[in-house]
Design a protein that fits this description.
InterPro entries: DUF6952. The chain is mainly α. It is built from four helices and no strands. The chain has one domain. Helix 1 crosses helix 3, helix 2 packs antiparallel against helix 3 and helix 3 packs across helix 4. The longest helix has 21 residues.
């Protein structure tokens, strides 16, 4: 998971385009835009993170850094 990639996706893609990219990756298809990542798993992680962050920003009126912190908290909890 690379934070600069997630930030780039949040800044350049819409929520709808990210959801479509997630569906494409899950169906083993190429998304309509380039998603950086070493493999499909990392690409999916970047897209999923960007979706979470955009939703959190919209739902809570949060800025990017706050939403990113919330995402990384969830990742840490899921790893433990």
């Amino acid at each position: 998971m690379k934070m600069p990639v997630i930030k780039q996706l949040v800044e350049t893609q819409t929520l709808q385009s990210l959801v479509e990219a997630e569906e494409a990756l899950l169906d083993e298809r190429q998304p309509d835009f380039e998603v950086p990542g070493e493999d499909e798993g990392e690409q999916l992680t970047h897209v999923f993170a960007a979706i979470f962050i955009l939703n959190h920003m919209r739902d809570h009126g949060a800025d990017f850094k706050t939403a990113l912190r919330e995402y990384t908290k969830k990742v840490r909890v899921s790893i433990n």
